[in-house]
Design a protein that fits this description.
single chain; alpha+beta; about 30% helix; binds FE2/S2 (inorganic) cluster
Length: about 375
């Protein structure tokens, strides 16, 4: 058993939990907060949605030990919340629920939309809600309810003081429209600007690692698209030239398997040793779509015989795998993926052989497990 201390609906909770206990079971069985419902228990239906540190997340795929020190809000914690009051009334008025099983998760997702996206249209509401499934309503009432609350709030004079909702920084992603509706992800554009600020609704994280080779060598290796692809877990290159690449990325998460097909454009600035890779892809099987951008910079480290590679990674994810955009776990998993990439690249530069098995999927479950193992080790060292 592992000790954890977290805040649930503003109340401090300390407990001993099995490392395998997921947050939803912890909330329901330890905290007796049964408003968090469990449907699929593998991150697809959204019934278990809660807020973790203010961000919607699926409590069935978050370990309770991973939430140590974090703030959790369940549906029971929104009494008196002005947006939730409006949404509850609207869901009743617009027939946005029947059996009510999906409703707690749906309300928390809806509240997140109202807070983040004033003026949003019905199409975007549907995309934003695409991670929450309802077997009863056909969604029309739910979408109308959310739209009516947004319209009512938009038509009010600008909120100041009491009741004003502070704008939440777009720290973590939710769903963003691809601009192509429910179809294929939009192709990447080489002309798209590189933003210093995170794009609204995209997940962003920054990371750096050291490669044991001088910058000129690493810069050359980064120009070698097959080598870069071979070091990226789950990636398989199908076509490429110096500025473009096409390929596949296989992802495995428990019972979910996705095979993203996509393309990327590559820009490199030899003078500043800075590169940008923009990509987009989709998986027909799960209906998941993704867009992303990686900006990297190389700088000498130590005596110049090593290179620090600094990355800014931004991506958006829609569809069945979108839950991985919605929690800080996504950023930790992204960092672990980068660490695997760096280890593979160092192994190659050190004369190691093939680092990836072509076609082997990126095993998100394995990454999550190793992330959890490291976290437990840190806990035990305290
Ligand atoms: S029960 Fe968690 S997403 Fe379905
Ligand atoms: S109201 Fe029954 S599942 Fe949504």
């Amino acid at each position: 058993m592992t000790p954890i201390a977290l805040t649930v609906n503003g109340r401090k909770v300390a407990a001993l939990v099995e490392p395998r206990t997921h947050l939803a079971d912890f909330l329901r069985e330890h905290c007796r907060l049964t408003g968090t419902h469990l449907g699929c228990e593998h991150g697809v239906c959204g019934a278990c949605t809660v807020l973790i540190d203010g961000e919607p997340a699926r409590s069935c795929i978050a370990y309770a030990v991973a939430c140590d020190g974090l703030a959790i809000e369940t549906i029971e914690g929104f009494d008196g919340d002005p947006i939730m009051l409006d949404l509850r009334e609207a869901f009743s008025r617009e027939h946005g629920l029947q059996c009510g099983f999906c409703t707690p998760g749906m309300l928390i997702a809806a509240r997140d939309i109202v807070r983040r996206l004033p003026g949003v249209d019905e199409h975007r509401i549907r995309i934003e809600l695409s991670g929450n499934l309802c077997r009863c309503t056909g969604y029309l009432g739910i979408v109308n309810a959310v739209a009516s609350v947004i319209q009512a709030r938009d038509s009010r004079p600008a909120a100041t003081g009491v009741g004003a909702e502070p704008a939440r920084p777009a720290r973590l992603a939710t769903f963003v429209p691809s601009g192509t509706g429910a179809g294929e992800a939009a192709p990447p554009s080489a002309a798209a600007p590189v933003l210093d600020q995170p794009r609204q609704g995209w997940t962003r994280f920054e990371e750096s690692f050291v490669i044991i080779a001088p910058p000129a060598t690493v810069w050359q290796v980064f120009a070698d698209v097959p080598t870069v692809a071979a070091c990226l877990p789950g990636a398989e290159l199908t076509e490429h030239d110096a500025q473009t690449a096409k390929g596949k990325m296989a992802v495995k998460l428990g019972p979910i398997r996705a095979a993203f097909g996509g393309s990327a454009v590559i820009e490199r600035d030899d003078r500043t040793l800075r590169g940008v890779i923009r990509g987009a892809g989709s998986d027909r099987g799960t209906g998941s779509r993704t867009k992303g951008e990686v900006v990297y910079r190389l700088a000498p480290e130590g005596a110049g015989d090593r290179t620090r590679v600094s990355l800014v990674v931004e991506y958006s994810l829609q569809g069945a795998l979108a839950q991985f955009s919605r929690s800080s776990l996504a950023q930790d998993l992204g960092r672990r993926l980068v660490a695997d990439f760096a280890a593979n690249l160092n192994a190659r530069l050190g004369g190691g052989g093939a680092t990836n098995t072509p076609g082997a999927p990126l095993n998100v479950g394995r990454l999550a497990w190793s992330w959890l193992r490291d976290r437990l080790r840190r806990l035990l060292r305290r």
